[in-house]
Write a structure and sequence with these properties.
With about 120 residues, this protein is an alpha+beta fold. Helices cover about 35% and strands about 10% of the residues.
Length: about 120
């Protein structure tokens, strides 16, 4: 499309500020994470259990946790890191690299309910 530019998310690569704001991973920023250290969900599907097991023993991963769409929808996106220079929205909001994930989760929540849509993460 001539003359139109698609915005590029500000965060590229690992986006550690987003991981800190959401999950407490590499949280040198001092965010109050939304979902830190919850572990692997007991009611995870067999497919997800298989994906998780493929990374080896539980000791081979860290930061395993999960977050529901209801929690994301209720989050204080204006809350800042310890320096008060970076908001949760700037680190991991809809206009960040996480925006596409939030869009998919929002659509799924319309079908399944906000409490029934969950993002499960772990780090290797």
């Amino acid at each position: 499309m001539a003359g139109r530019h698609r915005p590029v998310p500000a965060q590229q690569g690992n986006a550690y500020d987003g991981l800190a704001a959401l999950f407490g991973i590499r949280n040198s920023f001092g965010f109050r994470p939304l979902a830190e250290g919850r572990g692997f969900p007991d009611d995870a599907s067999d497919g997800l259990r298989g994906d998780f097991a493929a990374y080896g023993d539980p000791g081979d991963v860290h930061g395993t946790t999960w977050l529901t769409w209801a929690e994301l929808a209720a989050a204080d996106w204006a809350e800042t890191d310890a320096s008060a220079t970076r908001s949760r929205a700037s680190a991991a909001g809809a206009d960040s690299g996480w925006g596409r994930v939030w869009s998919v989760m929002g659509i799924l929540s319309e079908v399944h309910g906000a409490e029934n849509v969950r993002l499960v993460v772990w780090f290797h």
